[in-house]
Amino acid sequence: MWGDLRRRWRARRPGGGRELDLERRLQECRLTLAERDADVRRLRAELDRARASSADDAARRGQARVEELVEAMGAALVQLATQAQLHDGGAVRVRTDDVVAVGARLVRSLGAAGVATLGALGEEVPFDPDRHDPLSMSSAPETGTRVRIRVVGLRYGDRVLRRAGVETVAADGGC
Fold first, then answer.
1. Which of 3, 87, 153, 158 has its CB 3.0 to 4.6 Å from that of 118, i.e. a possible disulfide?
2. pLDDT tens-place string over residues 107-162
3. In whole angstroms, what is the distance from residue 52 CA to residue 65 CA?
4. Residue 159 forms beta bridges with which residues?
């Protein structure tokens, strides 16, 4: 009621119509800002849902990849677990060749997933601290020094998971 009276009073004053126009434009701007704020809130909620969905999808893909890997390694893992139980129970003597064969199957399964050994036993290579760990901390070789691989490492693509264990090659060719 008072607002209506105020508007009529202003309309009778000289220049009052202009004030009403300005007030109307101000109100339109406020409504526009309120709509924009609502749009921003809606878009932020949409973005949060999309991020959550993307994270869920990535988790599902990762879980599926792990399941594929375990399935590929399943028979070898079961065989290894059985051999361990037989060995621990003392009921059957487990042959070393059998355990090594199962280990080789596991390495092949991991290879199919992109995991590979880093170096070969006895291989002589230049020392690289990013790829090699000295087995003797008393004489850490300098980068580029000839070393012999004593324990293979593991890599996944270009990423080193486990550095190869190495010993410095003596000047006469021995370690």
1. 153
2. 888 888 889 999 999 999 999 999 999 998 777 888 999 999 999 999 998 999 99
3. 20
4. 156
| Burial of 147: CB neighbours in 10 Å, binned 0-12, 13-18, 19+ | buried
Distance CA 100, CA 115 (A): 18
Strand partners, 147: 125, 168
CA–CA separation, 175 and 138 (whole Å): 14
Question: Taking a C-beta distance cutoff of 8 angstroms, is the pair 153, 163 a contact?
Answer: yes
Pairing of strands 146-151, 153-156: unpaired
Instruction: Report the predicted TM-score, pTM, of the whole model to 2 decimal places.
Output: 0.56
Give every CB contact of residue 147 below 8 A, 6+ residues apart in sequence: 124, 125, 126, 127, 132, 134, 141, 166, 167, 168, 169
What is the residue whose two structure tokens read 């434009």?
Answer: 25
Length of the chain: 175
For the purposes of burial, counting CB atoms within 10 Å of the CB of 117, is it exposed (0-12), middle (13-18) or buried (19 or more)?
A: middle
Structure tokens at 169: 């090659």
